[in-house]
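dumping the sequnces here before i forget
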Amino acid sequence: MIDQLSRPRRNRRNAVVRGFHRETWLGPEHFVYPLFVHDRTDVGDVPIVSMPGCSRLSFDGLLTEVEGARADGIGAVVLFPAVADALKTRDAAEAFNPQGLIPRAVRALKAKFPGLVVITDVALDPYNADGHDGLVADDGRILNDETIAVLCKQAVCHAEAGADIVSPSDMMDGRVQALREALDARGHTEVGILSYTAKYASGFYGPFREALDSAPRFGDKKTYQMDPANAREALREVELDEAEGADIVMVKPAGPFLDIIRRLREHTTLPIAAYQVSGEYAMLKAASQNGWLDERRVVLESLLGIRRAGADVIFTYYARQAARWLAEGVKP
Ligand code: PBG
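..and the predicted 3d for all of it:
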């Protein structure tokens, strides 16, 4: 008999005892489902090659997909537009066209699903001929304050169409306060701001940029998105976003930045969101399709890890599938 007072395995002896002290849980109430939408009339849903299972949806496809997601228990979606080449300009004016793709999609969704929480992306890259999140000067610099003026018009346009939450993903300085003031000035005091607070210049956005044909036409996004080497800078960003009136703060990508989620959790009382981005989805999908990983287990484990790190909300392309697996009783 080994003299062993402390035996952690006693608390793992069976499912009931393990259930006593499970610290983290996962449910569809935690998920936001990102959806790509287009308004071409010549095609229906267009599959995204590097994101098997995801498509650029037609309006009909969008309504069908959201109906299914609702049935699976998903309460919130975030929309991204696949904008026609001809509408991409250097001033990104299509971003605040009240008859544009996103305002029309928001109106269609809110008419059919009044209780659905609709989040819109505030950034210029899908509309910008240069593929950057901000306006580009002749010498190639990304203009901060000039961009913010356009973002404010975009956010007000989305709010006017019925968006519940606007979500600036552009990383310009000072945009949260400017958006708050612009929304309030138009009476949209109830529209929330979910800020991409610590958004890193990551290689994991590749499939998303393929989906929207929104890759930067020159250079990279390192003068506005954060250096993946940095953690303290994320704390500086969260202090600013909090002071500027953000309602929810986000870390993106999620999986490679779990320590940042934890640091933010310990630094702010605001709810925290994390984005399991397109490249994270593509990795999990590709390995699963090859039979190299057990998809249900690893996807739920990855989402549970994001929650354990401290995220309240998770943006994930797996939202519907994960919700269904959880309903079937699969345990991460
Ligand atoms: C751009 C934006 C990006 C994503 C969301 N908003 C890409 C980028 O910054 O280049 C990426 C999401 C994903 O990869 O799933 N404003």
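The first strand starts at residue 31 and ends at 37.
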